[in-house]
Amino acid sequence: MPGTLKVKIVAARDLPVMDRSTDLTDAFVEIKMGTELQKTEVFKRSLYPQWNSDWFKFEVEDEVLQDEPLELRVLDHDTYSAHDAIGKVYIDLNPLLVKESPSVISGWFPVYDTMHGIRGDLNVIVKIDLFSDFNKFRQSSCGIQFFCTAEVPAGYRLQYVHGFVEELVVNDDPEYQWIDKIRTPRSSNEARQRLFSKMSGQLTRKIGLKVLEMGGGAVIGFKQCFDLEGESGIVIRGIGTAVTLAKARDPPVSPLGMSPLKDSPVPEESNAPSSPQSKNELSSTSPMKMNGTGTRHSSGSDASTPPKGNFLDCSSGSGSGKNFPKICSQQINIELMEFPLFTMTSFPPGFILHLGGVVAARSVKLLDKIHNPEEPETRDAWWNEIRTEIRSHTRAMGCHAVIGYSEETSICDDIILLSAMGTAAKVNLNLDQYQSTRLAPPQVVNTGDRSNMSAERDQSKKLYVDVNLANQVSHRLGLDESSPRYNCALCHIPYKPSSSPFPINLTQCACCRRRYVPDLLFTTINRPPEIHTVGHGAFIQARVCRPKGDGKTEVNAKEISDILPFMEYELHNQLVVKLKIRSMNCLFGLKMQFVVGESMLIGIATGTGVFLSPLPAPPVPRLVGQVTSEEENVELQELQLQIQEKLQRHKDLYNLNSVEISNQNLTSGVQTDDSDDDTSDLDLSAGNKDTFILEVDDTKDNSVKAMLSDVLQPPGMYVCNTDTYPGLTSQNLASNLQMFTQVFRRTVDNLQGLNKDFSEFFDSVFRRLFFKLRRMIPCCLCNVSFAVGAPEENQIEIVVTGICVRVDDSTSQNNSLTDNPMPMHGLETPMTGASSKSLLKPVSNVVGASGENVDEMMFPMEEVTEGSGASANKAARLKVVSNSRNTSQVFSRTFHGIEVTPLAYVPGARIERYIGSYNFFFIRETSSVKEVGGVCGFMQKFITEVLAIVRAHVSSLGGNALVAYNMTQCVLLSNEHKNQSQCLINVCGDAVFASREGEITAVVPDLIHSRKPSDSPSFAT
Amino acid sequence: MSYVDVFVGNFIVIDFELYDLWLKGLSVDECAVALQNRGVLQSTGARFDELISDTKDSFRLYASLEQLLKWPTKFGEQLVYQIDPETQKILIDKYYQFDAHVIREILGKKLSTRLRNNLDEVSEKTKVHLRSCCRQFDNVKRVFRQVEERPGSLEKNIMSCFCLTSDTLAKKYAAIVFMANHRFETCKKRLGHLTFEDFLYCAEHMITNWSYSAAECDNHEDMDVDLDRAFLQDLRDLKILTEKQHVDEHKLFVLNILKTSLKKKRHESLEENYKTTSKAIISIAYGLNHSKEVRNFFSDVIEEVIEPFMLSHWTVEEMKTFLSVYKDSGHRLSVFRSAPNLSVVWDRYMNTFIKCCLKMYHM
Lengths: 1021, 363
Known about the structure:
The structure holds 2 protein chains of 2 kinds.
Chain A: E1 3-13, E2 27-33, E3 36-39, E4 56-60, H1 62-67, E5 70-76, E6 84-91, E7 104-113, E8 117-130, E9 132-133, E10 145-146, E11 156-171, H2 185-214, E12 218-228, E13 234-247, H3 298-303, H4 329-336, E14 352-366, H5 377-396, E15 401-412, E16 415-427, H6 433-438, H7 450-458, H8 467-477, E17 506-508, E18 516-518, E19 521-522, E20 533-547, H9 553-581, E21 586-596, E22 600-612, E23 621-625, H10 630-653, E24 692-696, H11 703-708, E25 717-719, E26 733-747, H12 754-772, E27 779-789, E28 795-807, H13 812-818, H14 822-828, H15 848-858, H16 860-866, H17 874-882, H18 884-891, E29 899-900, E30 909-926, H19 934-956, E31 961-975, E32 980-996, H20 1006-1009, E33 1018-1019
Parallel strand pairs in A: 9-33, 10-12, 19-21, 23-24, 25-27, 29-31
Antiparallel strand pairs in A: 1-4, 1-8, 2-3, 2-5, 5-6, 7-8, 11-13, 12-13, 14-16, 15-16, 17-18, 20-22, 21-22, 26-28, 27-28, 30-32, 31-32
Chain B: E1 2-9, H1 16-23, H2 28-38, H3 48-70, H4 85-95, H5 100-106, H6 113-117, H7 119-126, H8 130-147, H9 154-161, H10 167-182, H11 196-210, H12 229-235, H13 244-261, H14 264-287, H15 291-295, H16 297-311, H17 316-330, H18 334-338, H19 340-360
Helix pairs in contact in B: 2-3, 8-10, 9-10, 10-11, 11-19, 13-14, 13-17, 14-16, 17-19
């Protein structure tokens, strides 16, 4: 007897006219839960029916409550023919099943129809009376909280991490069943939507059961993915991190009292599929040289290859993982977990000990080779292979955990490409946040053996303070947050310098000078607060697009597997160059996506580059090429000049002028490049011994130029793909301005110029974005994430999402941004007219065309009110400067509404409570594309509607924001000849209530939003 | 070319610079060119393509918002667009703004589909884009339909039905509705020189003084789109003033008083024209009882009252002096003493009449 569901249908408004003769509607509502169906009265002749019904009651098993949403269907009553559907409202009941959450869902919900979109709103109240169930063999997992948020939710304390949880549910796709041939598009879409939400419910329930088994109470960093495999079905995958959370106010419970549980997916479970499958393991791909023959400096490019997981060699790991001395309890735990995968991307201080580098694994499979597609075994086996591979990479890096772990697929016809990536790290699971927040993270001072090190960690009260270090840090500090205690140990290599798993440049840590650090560090996580950075972060993106033959099945799979490593190498190479051109040495939030299309393969990698102070400053990139003629030499020199210029401009832009490049002490005898300046005919590097060599085979080759010609954001705008912007504090990020979704699709004309076209496509996406948001400056675009697709032959699709956060310039932070000693450099930098846009300079110094630019940028509202052109003259400019504060206030809304944000927090507000996670799949179809404004109009409308429905659900739960919002899927199918379009969108996030500073926390009436204890009598079954 | 290119935000953010151009009825390309000329592209390094794409995007958004803008009360009960109240207010107010010279063309006409189909002529004449003309026409028509049958103050009804925050705008619409309701003739050639503001002024005074909402009217239940029927009936009583004895008496008073304040030449011409002028003023008054005469009010005033004076080059000041003396001396007539009600009607009529007359008296 798990629960009684009570539903009250109050009213509807703004319903569509269903009866042409009267211009009115006779509406009624069908309420469906599981298989039971009830109806309201027909409210005749009104577009604003008021039912004010009694409570409809349903007695439901909690398994059903978890699996199925409440389905409300609004219909128009017709005496003689079938009733006409107006639309539906689906309500996920899971938020009501968690103890601390509201016990009521109440509010206006948009009535949604898959063929017509939103048609009016329905006012509903939903309650559940739950009975406690002590049945040991239950199939439900009520009470387990799910968070899409990939970090410890605000207001909670991480008590215990149980490990990785995953589940996979498979079903037939209704779109491919025979019945689809005879039913209407509407019922087909609805069947699909219903199936999706049911599968998603099942998936969460099953994961919940696993968590219960492990002894956990919540899942954080929960991600659901839909694989639309076509003929072979629909797969929903879920991954997350099982944890035990405690309210931050509660006294800490010793985690040692709990028995650690084993992570479920063990390699032994994975039976190798018996069918012949074309697959490719990328594990042992070593860095490949792509350069031509006879280049003098070829060794240089190899030597500077940074540590990166997917290029590591398995064999060189030499089983170090198991050999670690087991000294304290937490290490026993982590050993037992056998290389756990954590889906979180931000961690409490002290959690991460060392960062190794990125580990990744990919494999190409054939869908039509699945033996029984209805069963999940084959897919389970695939993923287990991938995870095993990830674990072995991790071990080779001397790490014992993977953090920031994610999985994804790309499907094209019968090919499926599975990829997984994460960051290998050493972590400290036995974390007592109470202690660690008060004490500085242990500063690892002693080099040498590990036992000593961990002994020190145990007695963390003994605090080492290196005076020199402290001075150095404070000297360099300048810009960053003042509060956190920096810990350079995170950057120290987790393996022994002598047994590094791949060729790598090691240097002494610039902070403690006692341990080794790599020259570059790539990670998939957000920037841990303990790591000290200098200057600002930079959005860095690498893109590769390659044409592919039209082979079938195995041939195709083979070709893809063969190309992938080359693409990966090229991506990596681009990332490295782009980092170095920006004088940076670390990437956070690295995301890679590989997409298989019919005629091409696409790979993109995005990350946020920063300069980490423990790591050595990157050398100035130097161009080297095979010069055969004077002409080419000149071109080469020009290119080198461009690089130089770019470098300086970037330094200005990212505030990295304080970084001294010459502070490198190469102490390790590892592969330093032997190609010093003696062989160079272009000595432009400013007396710098250590160089980064860029090779140019052909000066006409645009690849290097392309890497230099990224679209730069306009002044006053910052871009990153992480949750926070390195270089801005949380006080600087004042409030959300706009969450945006951009969808682009374009046909590529010729496959020859594919790569150039492809880059240009991305550049235009950026320019559009910057242009669109220009009026919000000063602002920061956070969590900018790209999803590419190759939906049809010769088509490329890009979906960009992110949030524009207002940057508060009232703090001293901004002064350092704009009034830095940059004009000096600016004078040295050659600039021509409008192209000087990337320079941030005090307005008064700017003359001519560039002056107009700055004005345009900073004071767009001025222009609106005063008319155009007026701002160009100097007087106006001065006036405008004094008005700058007003400008920003134009966009700091006093109106807050319902925020939807991909971030884990709400800028300028504190999350008071989490109300429940939201996950829904929408399908929208139309057979009148032209009439709704073409495919663009259709998409714009649909995304707007999806957001509207999401907001309605958040507010019905008593929330005012949805954090960790993610559009996990956006599939657009369009046939313009038939005037048809169909689109599928999956969104998820955590509904929260957040209060703003200076705002009185809304007192929610007890009657509505808290569960009365007397309401839930207990039954033991 | 890209064939899908959309930008969707959680909040509706309106670029009002662009919105204004959209309201003006510019096409996407015209709009983009206009913006480019203003220099919006220089700041971000964006190209013309991007400007076009942004413009298209915004135009699509405005087009879908237009459904709400037509019935602004729906803004309050919709969940699709998250718009802050301030933006919403500006959106609506701007949407209901109009060009005076466009409205001038349709003023007093029957708001029929035929008129709408002929808006291209208006567009050509006024140099306002056809789409903008259509929007203005549709707005007027919608406002008219919505309030014509609604009891209460015209202005307040318009404000509440269309969520307008500016009462000056609502007043203008009230005047337009009033004019349209009585189908005042405004297109005759001799009315050509009158501007929208002239009519607005007259209509406003007619609404405040001659309609059901006037202070003199005791029956406020009916709508103020209509003229106060009781007042119109009372106006018939003024016919008595056209009887010879009264005309002569009135003429005597008027000319006597004006002897000092008017130039001799003017005085003479007045003496000559007095009879016809006085007759015209009074026949317009009692003619208001017939709706056909009401429609011709403006042309009658111009033709029968104003034009003779204009021909003899009277200034507005002189005209004003004459009319006020004409009004005041009326009270001294013997008939007014016998019928006290007459003087109330006389004042109510003459006050507004004089105002309209002077407004229309263009030199």
